[in-house]
Amino acid sequence: MAHKILVIFGTRPEAIKLFPVIRALREVTGLTVRTCVSAQHRDLLDQVLQIADVTPDIDLDLMEPGQSLDRLTARLLIALGETMDRERPDRVMVQGDTATAMVGALAAYYRRIPVSHVEAGLRSGDIYHPFPEEVNRRIVAPIADQHFAPTQTAADALVREQVPVSQVHVTGNTVIDALIATKAAVAGQPALAGGLDAIAERFAKKRMLLVTTHRRENFGGGMENIARAIARIAARDDIALLFPVHPNPNVVSVMDRMLGALSNVARVDPLDYPHFVRALGMAHIVLTDSGGVQEEAPALGKPVLVMRDTTERPEGIAAGTARLVGTDKDRIVSEIFTLLDDNAAYQAMARAHNPFGDGHASARIARIVANGFAP
Question: Is the sign of the CA dihedral 169, 172, 174, 175 positive or negative?
């Protein structure tokens, strides 16, 4: 009899990091894979599903404009619980640090269904940075019995929290699997990312900075500081900035008000994953407050300046591929200018070893899941 795995996710980053895992699981004889999306982020999620050719078996469609964390959590718990009661899976799989992942694990625990956690063990040490992701991860940890840690650092963090060593598996990060697969797809079909052709031509003679920002803890003063830094960087005539603007009003309103129509800042709608992978390839430097970008950019040899005070991905900092710069506008500008003007400093980051994986994490995870059902 086939064993049923229910894979639960709801945001764009989860979809990116899980689609290679879903593919790998579906290649394993004796496993039935069912996918359930909460649609915590509707439009951004759908972009990835379409490109990855993943059609959810269950779509809860829970996104609401301006939804509070407590309302989202309550709706997720009820909807995911009802889903598990109907599906009766043998195992639930969640990814990362979202509300969907945390509640999916909790609903499974209430039903005594074992949980696999992809990208387990990331810790910043500060429950408010990133918020609420740090606590979401900590809630999943004691529930899961399969912990797929992307690095040894993450595995060590779990063991320090008394997770049994036998339950912790260092697999690499599945985002590298997704990045490699998508880069190959774009190389074979350039039209997949053709929407950036005009920008590439427009800024062909300039060095490109890729900017992404959306963190909840940066809303308000932090976001305004980021906008001021971007404006100062954009005053240079030897660079251009590509800025996919997150649709959250806390981001859009600030950037509209403070950046105006700067000629060398290309503010665009959020990019689907093939376009984002191409944008990473075009970039000279990446400026971000994202988590996943800290893993993706080093795989392509791009220095990453992280606009946060802490990171749950210290491996990039230790390896020299990434640097924390916070949201102080003077610090951001100074660090960017150093990389632009000091080639030795730039090369030291660009050539640093990528610590996040080799592109085979998903196959390892599928094999471990399958072996877990062995008699």
Answer: positive
Q: List the end-to-end C-alpha distance of the chain, in Å, as a whole number.
A: 13
Q: Which of 233, 288, 306, 223 is nearest to 258 (CA)?
A: 223
Cα 255 versus chain centre, distance: 22
The C-alpha atoms of residue 292 and residue 284 are separated, in whole angstroms, by 18
The pLDDT of residue 250 is 80
Per-residue pLDDT tens over the stretch 114-156: 999 999 999 999 999 888 999 999 999 999 999 999 999 999 9
Give the active site residues.
97, 119, 133, 214, 216, 246
**Within 10 Å of residue 197's Cβ, how many Cβ atoms?**
12
Alpha carbons 370 and 375: distance in angstroms, whole number: 11
Measured distance CA(334)–CA(233) in Å, rounded = 9
Predicted confidence (pLDDT) per residue in 18-46, tens digit: 999 999 999 999 999 999 999 877 777 78
Give the alpha-carbon dihedral of 294, 286, 255, 246, to 10 degrees.
-40
Cα 329 to Cα 213: distance, rounded to the nearest angstrom = 14
- Do the Cβ atoms of 132 and 99 come closer than 8 Å? yes
- All residue ranges of the chain with pLDDT < 50 are none
Q: What are phi and psi of 92, to 5 degrees?
A: -110, 140
Q: Looking at residue 20, what is its pLDDT? A: 96
